[in-house]
Amino acid sequence: METGLLLQYVVIALAVVVSAWVVMNKQFPGTVRKARGAIALGLVKPQRAAWLQALGRKIAPPATGSGGACGGCDSCGPTPPKQH
Q1: CB of 33 within 8 A of CB of 72?
Q2: How far is CA 41 from each of CA 3, 33, 37, 60, 80, rounded to the nearest angstrom?
Q3: CA atoms in the 13 A half-sphere facing the CB of 81
Q4: Residues in CB range of 31: below 8 A, 6 or more apart
Q5: CA 56 – CA 42 distance, rounded (Å)
Q6: How far is it, in rounded angstroms, from Cα 62 to Cα 37?
Q7: pTM of the predicted model, to two decimals?
Q8: Residues 2-42: pLDDT tens digits?
Q9: Terminal CA-CA length for the chain
Q10: Residue 81 pLDDT more than 70?
Q11: What is the sign of the dihedral through the CA atoms of 36, 39, 41 and 44?
């Protein structure tokens, strides 16, 4: 296989992965958050290498004070009606 063709395949594969990640974040934020948490927990174990632990801390989802309805961004719920 030519180098140019291989490079094209790599660029297309990267575009597909990034596109899938963006769609997952927008459509299924709770699922993405749970998956990131599960992956991070596996990486931050004490018997892992230091660079793997650092990677796990980097990809871990940020802590939230309140558990939203979907576990996502906490801004998808309806706003309460205003009282006059």
Answers
A1: yes
A2: 38, 12, 6, 8, 37
A3: 2
A4: 24
A5: 8
A6: 9
A7: 0.58
A8: 999 999 999 999 999 999 999 999 999 999 999 999 999 99
A9: 71
A10: yes
A11: negative
**Residues across the chain:** 84
Q: Report the alpha-carbon distance of residue 36 to residue 13 in Å, rounded.
A: 21
What lies within 8 Å, CB to CB, of 15 at 6+ separation is none
For residue 82, give both structure tokens.
Answer: 């205003």
Tokens of 27: 């459509």
Please say whether the dihedral angle defined by the alpha carbons of residues 69, 75, 76 and 82, taken in this order, is positive or negative: positive
User: Structure tokens of 34?
Assistant: 């749970």
